[in-house]
Amino acid sequence: MIRKLKSGEYRLYSKNKDEKTNKRRNLGTFDTLAAAKKHEQEIQYFKKH
User: Is 30 helix (H, G, I), strand (E, B) or coil?
Assistant: First the structure.
């Protein structure tokens, strides 16, 4: 899940919430939406291979 921050950057969060903190895990902060989407695709590829 990608959210836009007040600073204008984009942050990638995990789809599942952490059981202990009940928050989503931060998977990286990026300057552009395209960079965030690219990293999300890389994560999905890594999970499947």
Answer: strand
**Which amino acid, residue 18?**
D
Q: pTM (2 decimals)?
A: 0.85
**What pLDDT, on the 0 to 100 scale, is given for residue 34?**
98
- The separation between CA 47 and the C-alpha centre of its own chain, rounded to angstroms, equals 14
Spatial separation of the C-alpha atoms in residues 49 and 32, rounded to whole Å: 26
Q: Which tokens hold the place of 45?
A: 């590829």
Give 5's pLDDT tier (boundaries 50, 70, 90): very high
Helices (H) and strands (E) in the chain, counts: 1, 3
Mean pLDDT of 2-21: 96
